[in-house]
């Protein structure tokens, strides 16, 4: 086991030998790498931290949302109250619901500027969170408006809803939009989402766009804040034009243009182990593809039975302008089928996506932590990341450590340390749970002076993130991204 010098020391660390961990029963296993050179660990020089791109993007989103809330509220105030206070509250709920709906479109538009700074996982989480708010705003809109009109006419809520739908332009479209959003909300709930195939869920989710169009026409036709205001109408058309335009650009125009330009094809399929395979792809003008180590694409391999399936796989090597490579473990039908791809197969790739890049590196040195096949973006990052680097690679057994020889070669070239940590999920070392707070601090004495990039199975990632929080590692130095399909 390597002995790390304190962070303020100028001494050297000996060559890497082994790392042993034991499970709760006391048994253990050893992973051993040879051929590593003696490395000099020095205290990182004090430097001015680079721009916090994530904070800037987050502040920009909040500023845009806040400014639009202010404009909508002002338009509502100028239009004045309705004849019934319940209707007034319902109208305000409806305006805010429409605004949230437009904001949601921006979050899932997959715009490169936002995605590189926040990551698709964070944007999708924010989209899901605001989705719950949207549902309740719409429910409040319907309940208060119908109750208000029913109070004016002394009729029942159901009768009043039917009357509104048949006598006021745009109300029937609003009811259809409301029903569609309720359905999409129901299938997006965690319980239902886990039991639906992605393709089924995504197909149902597409009805959201129909609901958006119906809701927009309802607002323009019946919204008193816009009917009598030229500024309000121009603002509303501009807002929704920008939101829908962002979706069209990010989800259709740019992917089609990039694939027409780069024309990716499979060049080789290389087994890395019994259940892991690498797919190499070449194309045109790949030096002009703005991809970075740590990012991922949504890949579609255009063969019979596969062209309609999109799967997120990280780049497992830093882009070199000539080829791209992904490495995946056979954990489902999509991943298992990669082994059967033939050279020459056409590829449709959406991306690159993700904020798991050196763009967010804040310190002069880094710690890269990978678990299982999560080594793929970590291996790519090792090529690109700056400063002194330590890699902790967590696997159940030594044979699971795919790409390890590549890691060793890159580490030798750039003077990095690589540890392969083996043992069952319950493994512990002398400092407690493996990759827990005390274990991390024991292995990496200057962890507070490093950016930490984490990628692996959710349980392992959760343990690492909890340990980093307990150690007090600054939040802006911790980088973890869950690579999954977004809506």
UniProtKB/TrEMBL annotation:
Organism, scientific name: Actinocrispum wychmicini
Coiled-coil segments on the chain, per record: none
Full protein name: Putative ferric reductase
Keyword Cell membrane found: no
GO CC annotation terms, alphabetical: membrane
Membrane topology: Multi-pass membrane protein
Protein localization: Membrane
Keyword Flavoprotein attached: yes
PANTHER family: 1,2-PHENYLACETYL-COA EPOXIDASE, SUBUNIT E (PTHR47354:SF8), NADH OXIDOREDUCTASE HCR (PTHR47354)
Molecular function as annotated in GO: 2 iron, 2 sulfur cluster binding; flavin adenine dinucleotide binding; metal ion binding; oxidoreductase activity
Record-linked InterPro entries: FAD-bd_8 (IPR013112), FAD-bd_FR_type (IPR017927), Fe3_Rdtase_TM_dom (IPR013130), FNR_nucleotide-bd (IPR039261), MRET (IPR050415), OxRdtase_FAD/NAD-bd (IPR001433), Riboflavin_synthase-like_b-brl (IPR017938)
């Amino acid at each position: 086991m390597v002995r790390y010098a304190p962070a303020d020391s100028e001494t050297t660390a000996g060559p890497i030998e082994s790392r042993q961990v034991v499970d709760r029963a006391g048994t253990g296993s050893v992973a051993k790498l040879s051929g590593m050179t003696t490395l000099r660990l020095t205290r990182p020089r004090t430097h001015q931290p680079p721009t916090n791109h994530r904070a800037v993007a987050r502040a920009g989103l909040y500023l845009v949302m806040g400014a639009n809330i202010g404009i909508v509220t002002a338009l509502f105030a100028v239009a004045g109250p309705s004849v019934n206070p319940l209707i007034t509250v319902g109208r305000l709920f409806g305006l805010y619901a429409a605004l949230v709906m437009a904001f949601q479109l921006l979050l899932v538009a997959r715009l490169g500027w936002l995605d590189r700074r926040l990551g698709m996982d964070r944007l999708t989480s924010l989209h899901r969170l605001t989705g719950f708010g949207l549902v309740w705003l719409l429910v409040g809109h319907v309940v208060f408006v119908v109750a208000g009109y029913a109070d004016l006419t002394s009729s029942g809520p159901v009768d009043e809803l039917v009357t509104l739908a048949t006598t006021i332009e745009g109300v029937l479209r609003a009811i259809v939009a409301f029903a569609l959003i309720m359905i999409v909300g129901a299938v997006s709930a965690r319980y239902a989402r886990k039991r639906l195939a992605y393709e089924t869920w995504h197909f149902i989710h597409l009805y959201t766009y129909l609901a958006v169009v119906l809701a927009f026409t309802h607002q323009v036709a019946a919204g008193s804040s816009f009917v009598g205001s030229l500024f309000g109408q121009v603002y509303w058309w501009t807002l929704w034009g920008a939101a829908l335009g962002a979706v069209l650009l990010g989800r259709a125009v740019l992917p089609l243009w990039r694939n027409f330009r780069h024309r990716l094809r499979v060049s080789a399929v290389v087994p890395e182990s019994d259940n892991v395979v690498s797919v190499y792809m070449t194309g045109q003008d790949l030096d002009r593809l703005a991809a970075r180590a740590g990012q991922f694409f949504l890949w579609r391999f255009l063969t019979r039975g596969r062209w309609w399936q999109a799967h997120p796989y990280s780049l497992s090597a830093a882009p070199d302008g000539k080829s791209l490579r992904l490495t995946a473990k056979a954990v489902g039908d999509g991943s298992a089928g990669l082994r059967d791809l033939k050279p020459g197969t056409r590829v449709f790739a959406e991306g690159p996506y993700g904020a798991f890049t050196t763009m967010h590196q804040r310190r002069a040195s880094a710690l890269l932590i990978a678990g299982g096949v999560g080594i793929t973006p970590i291996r790519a990052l090792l090529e690109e990341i700056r400063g002194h680097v330590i890699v902790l690679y967590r696997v159940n057994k030594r044979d699971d450590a795919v790409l390890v020889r590549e890691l060793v070669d890159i580490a030798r070239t750039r003077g990095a340390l690589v540890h392969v940590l083996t043992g069952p999920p319950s493994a512990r070392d002398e400092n407690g749970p493996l990759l827990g707070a005390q274990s991390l601090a024991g292995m990496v004495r200057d962890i507070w002076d490093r950016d930490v990039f984490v990628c692996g199975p959710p349980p392992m990632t959760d343990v690492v993130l909890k340990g980093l929080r307990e150690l007090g590692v600054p939040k802006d130095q911790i980088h973890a991204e869950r690579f999954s399909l977004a809506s």
